[in-house]
Amino acid sequence: MGREDVSLLEVPAMAISSTDCRARVGAGNPVWYLVPDGVVQYIAKYKLYSGKPGMGEPCML
Length: 61
Prior knowledge:
The protein is mostly helical. It has helices at 18-26, 37-45. The protein contains 2 helices and no strands.
């Protein structure tokens, strides 16, 4: 039934804080490995968490 060339691994879940994600974006640090790609794109498009509405610096999401 199962494939012999595929292995399943159990990994611990990461605790991800939305407050930490917002702080990272505000500091110009990436969050692409913490949130879905659509969230990264939305934050970049609307320059969220930049400190100045509509005046955000491009950040490494």
